[in-house]
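Aim 2 progress. For Glyoxylase-like metal-dependent hydrolase (Beta-lactamase superfamily II), the working sequence is reproduced below.
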Amino acid sequence: MALQIAIDRDAVIASPGATEEVVVTPDLSILRLAIVNVVFHGQPDCGDRGWVLIDAGIAGARGTIERHAARRFGEGTRPAAVILTHGHFDHIGALEDLAEMWDAPVCAHPAEVPFLSRRQAYPPADADAGGGLMTLLSPLFPRSPIDVSNRLMPLPGDGTVPHMPGWTWIATPGHTPGHVSLWHASRRILIAGDAVITTAQEAAYNVMTQEPEMHGPPRYFTSDWDAAEQSVRRLAELDPETLLSGHGPPLRGPEVSRALHELSRRFRDVAVP
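Predicted structure tokens for this construct:
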């Protein structure tokens, strides 16, 4: 597929292998689970309920997430919460098992609740959105709702993120109705979810190689392109220095803000099918 916004490779903190964790800051690491990333927040060896998991990966990822959490935070430690950027299959695949095992609350935007309480399925994938093999396969991806309603907590209306001091959540709808991104203003760190991503998720080659670029949300599952464009504009205005996204390698440096502003300006031309 055509490149969206090129990224200087010097901006890539590291390109993790298929089940590899990359430490971004002392209290923040990103774990790649084949086609998607999850994020750990918390100081190493912080102990039980001292850390937070952001998103929950693909089905079958429970063991990998458990092992990395134990290695980072201590054997048998549980998170204070699981924070969801949204509820697509590749971000909640291990959620039901992990939340039950850990007896942990699940925090999400209220607009995602129907998809997390078995009340509503996401819209069908758009196999005509272009970009490569992943798009062609997308009608096969799961979109049925899960049920974690007994553990669901809405994100606070004041914008704070539970158990993550200094962080705020920002509504970034478009990819899904209740998509959120997480922002630490003083450190200029953005956890974008799928509002923007850093590889071309529509192409199997890019997914495997993690070729870096600044990219709009995955085309095949994005339901509202007007809202998605506004969300990218909102994130560009933050001028982040460090970016962790749901797909692709973590980035750091002035290249992040430059590429994000360019994506915002050219969104209709490069991101929308």
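The chain has a mean pLDDT of 97. This observation will guide construct design in the next reporting period.
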